[in-house]
Design goal:
This is VanZ-like domain-containing protein. Helices cover 70% and strands 0% of the residues. The protein has helices at residues 2-26, 43-50, 57-68, 74-86, 90-97, 104-124, 132-149, 152-157. The longest helix is centred in the N-terminal third of the chain and has 25 residues, at 2-26.
Length: 159
């Protein structure tokens, strides 16, 4: 039974990675307010117009929009919850495949590097933006996932 669980786990990891690539890089295309594609801008202009380096700016905007009704409720919920759960599975997969990342400090450091690389890659390839709030939500989701990974039930499945 444990071998079947490990095979299913490996297959699910492949599908998870494919879904992440689709969500983070392939399915993203920004169109400006006048219909201009953001990639028409120079890289510096693109960085300036599509980045958020102020912590909790986007998060607070979405939370306020949920209460004042200024946005369709689905938009803030999809953004906040989506970013929170997007990397939750990675925190189960990463310590499984890289045994040295089984401690919270190493895991946190690894996730900070991984998320930073993803955010910068999205920015440089113009397939997204650098948003510190996405980074924060992804990291919180990752730590929740790590906590799930450390539960006795999950550990028992993979030993």
């Amino acid at each position: 039974m444990k071998k079947v669980v490990k095979i299913i786990f490996c297959i699910s990891f492949i599908f998870y990675l494919l879904a992440l690539v689709m969500l983070l890089f392939i399915g993203v295309m920004f169109v400006g307010v006048r219909g201009h594609i953001w990639t028409d801008l120079s890289l510096i202009e693109y960085i300036r117009t599509s980045s958020n380096f102020v912590p909790f700016k986007t998060i607070s905007t979405y939370i306020m929009a949920m209460f004042d009704g200024s946005l369709n409720l689905g938009i803030p919920i999809k953004n906040l919850i989506g970013n929170l759960i997007m990397f939750l599975p990675m925190e189960i997969y990463l310590p499984y495949y890289i045994k040295k990342i089984n401690k919270v400090g190493r895991f946190t450091f690894s996730m900070i590097i991984l998320l930073f690389v993803i955010e910068v890659t999205q920015l440089v390839t113009r397939r997204g933006s650098f948003d510190i709030d996405d980074f924060i939500l992804n990291m919180v989701g990752a730590l929740i996932g790590f906590g799930i990974w450390k539960t006795k039930i999950v550990q028992r499945l993979f030993k």
